[in-house]
Design a protein that fits this description.
With 738 residues, the protein is an alpha/beta fold. The protein folds into 5 domains: 200 residues, no CATH class; 174 residues, P-loop containing nucleotide triphosphate hydrolases (Rossmann fold), CATH 3.40.50; 62 residues, Helicase, Ruva Protein, domain 3; 177 residues, Rossmann fold, CATH 3.40.50; 81 residues, Helicase, Ruva Protein, domain 3 (Orthogonal Bundle). Helix content is 50%, strand content 8%. It is built from 31 helices and 12 strands. β3, α13 and β4 form a beta-alpha-beta unit. α1 packs antiparallel against α3 and α1 packs across α5. The radius of gyration is 38 Å and the shape is elongated. The protein starts with 6 loop residues before the first helix and ends in a 14-residue tail after the last helix.
Length: 738
Amino acid sequence: MRFYETGFDYLRDELALLEQGLRVLLADFESKEIDGQTPMSMRGLVVNAIDIERSFLGNESLQEEDALASFRQFRLEAERQFSHQIHDSVSEGARLPFAYLSWTLRLSTWEKRCVMLCLAAELDSRYESWFGYLNDDVTLRVPTAELALRLLGDSKEEFYHARSLLAGYSTLGRFVLRSGRAAVPAERSMLKQPLRMDARIISFLLDTEKLDSRIEDVCTLYDGARSAPELAFNCELQDMLLQIVQRERSFKGDKSFTQDDENEQYEIPFIQLSGPSGAGKKLHARHLAQSLEQPLLLVKLDKLAKDEDAMAEQLINIVRESLLSVAVLCFDEGEGERSASEGWPHQQERVRKALANYIELARLPVVLWLTRVERRASQLPLPAFSALTSHTVHVPNAEVRLQLWQRCSDERADRSLLSHLADKYAFTAGQIEGMSKQADRLAYHNKHEFPTLDDYAHASRTQVQHRLSELAEKQRLVRRWDDLILPEEPLELLKDACSRHKHSETVFNRWGFGHKLPYGRGLSMLFAGPPGTGKTMAAEVVAGEMGLELYRIDLSRVVSKYIGETEKNLRELFAEAESSGAVLFFDEGDSLFGKRTEVKDSNDRFANMEASYLLQRIESFEGISILATNLLQNMDEAFLRRMQVIVNFPFPDAAHREQIFRSLLPKDAPLDPDLDLSFLAARIDASGGHIKNIVLSAAFMAASEQATIGMRHMVRATRQELHKMGKIVVKESFEPYN
């Protein structure tokens, strides 16, 4: 038996069979020529009575045993022969796109013939003349519904059944024929409907493109035969996902998933994978498809068109592509943040209908949904007969992160430094890879042989995408421990808090405290003290020591007069901070975390609801939060209990005030030899914030005189600051520097 070596070999046989049928139809058409009818050259342009009489003879021929009947019998035998050759050729490894298309779309015999009829017009322009003549209309030089119905059926009963196969809801109408074909003019019947194939079906049959070019910006097709990057962790999750799919498929009992029995329905695996960006959701999807020996079609939901009609067209093309490739269909929400309550109302129904089409025809259907925030079933476009399972892809633990760091770094890199990075940065695999590459670039730019801790700290900030700047103000971290002038006790508390963050991985994960304490694993600090005592500076120093970004909460962007809006803003704020690892700094925290009051009206009730929500969110927050207050007595006792570290910032004494003066004077500043900072520190009763104002004002005074900074400038600036504070200044207080 002859094998088909290529798809074109098979197409030639199919086209030869089609051409034979067209010739039989043409001969049958010409055999009923009547004297006086319109000449062939004028067909479609002129109609006379003889033509009308001939047309009725043509309709009668459908019921007669003529040459078409013999051809139909011959066609059935030829198609049986093709089937055997296809089977043997595919067994030998031949790629036959037309046969593959018929199998993937579950096309009937009549539908396959219709596809070949439409393809003929795309392969050879000489068929246009034939179609124009057989349609009896030179303006219709393409296959029409009438021509397909006359030529492709095997019996007169099939003539009527085949009309439903050309309807818009049929497989041909949805995925094969051009969806944007022009409507039939009002003066013509539906029988004269032109049949044209969609461009993707043509390119698939001719093997001219691997992915529909109309959706290449929205989709990525991963070949199931190509190995995905190695899965270095969470292998047990991969095994679980594979078992889920195999279990659902075992209920069917075969691998074809044909649903020929209308009384039986089978649940389709619908797997939701949630987790932060870079956690490996896409990698798990690729490995699952690879294990199933199927391609993976990844759809970027945030890239879909906003226009409803354009989106519907995209989804049809996406479903068609997944059917043609027998792919696992995977939807990725992307990094565009939507709250869990919003879900996808704009797209949900459209996507659900598209998935219903996919499940109806797909041979091996599997649907994956990738999201940062786990969705409820009502927030997902679940079609009928879906078996939903949800799994979270967590950030790897410190041991796995160390392995990832070692894989991404030079083998000569300091292991202790990599171990420190693994403990300090709870990053995903994708973030670790990106951070390592960026640190290498910084090291090269800074002329370091290997990246330093500072290089890694700067690189870490490039791996976090968040929207905190919309709700908070990013603080510059320029101050260090030497700039922070505090008594020994609060200074030790701050350093202990930094050490607590540094060793959290050891305590919670390696020592197992995380299993005993499922919540309250974050670090919450309260800084209390009079204004200007260094609370904001301490927050900057702590964040800098931890190597994290610091965001000062802008209460005007968070607090809203509308019910529920404040909680919504706070929920988004904490969620963004958790995903980015940034430190949240609530200045004037008593305005949000103050004592709950007795409920006298609705305003009190809603204010207490906000406070209660904050109470719960602070406890469940796994990041670092710092609250600052001038009045510790105004804070709610429940908040105080949930603070891991409370640091009191005392008003500075004379010795500390002198240290503050000296710390604020830069090395390059021109200082007068008579500058007596201990004298100033003993004479004024001011906090560090006021001392900063004094030093800066004195510097501007000296600069305007083009002189060095002396005591007369300091005394003058001090008098001005004390007046601002509302204090009475006695002239003799600063003798002899008046």
